[in-house]
Write a structure and sequence with these properties.
Layout (H helix, E strand, L loop, with lengths): L14 H17 L11 H21 L4 H28 L6 H49 L1
Helix pairs in contact: 1-2, 1-4, 2-3, 3-4
Length: 151
Amino acid sequence: MNSPKKPIRSFYDLDVYRNAYRASITVLTKIIPKLPKEERFDLTNQLRRSAKAVPRLIAEGHSKRHQKKGFQKYIDDALAESNETIVSLNQARDLYSNYVDVKLCDELIDTYDKTSRQLYNLALAWDKFNKRNRKTTNDSSYATEQQKTNN
């Protein structure tokens, strides 16, 4: 039986944030240090930047969740960074299998794939929530206008 979901009070309460944060720490501590030095200014920097960006963008987006466009922009950017991290992990695995833990790369790719799906679903759910709120707000505004007209 599923336990009831806890209310979301901060970005820490979002599963997608926690998953992305843990994955970023693993990338930074277990994958990047194993890459060859010649990749320091290319794959290493790219992977470091994109892995760090995902949880940061989720946190920033959560703080702007009451701004439709602000929230959506950050979630879209987090999704793009998550997908970019997947590609970089694929490249690290395929180009440097003698340096990195291939199994760990595959696990991280799966984690970031799940993160991307969670971000996509979060964006859809939030859009649906905002539409429902706009409809309620518009309906109450209409009712208020009708009362003014009738008085």
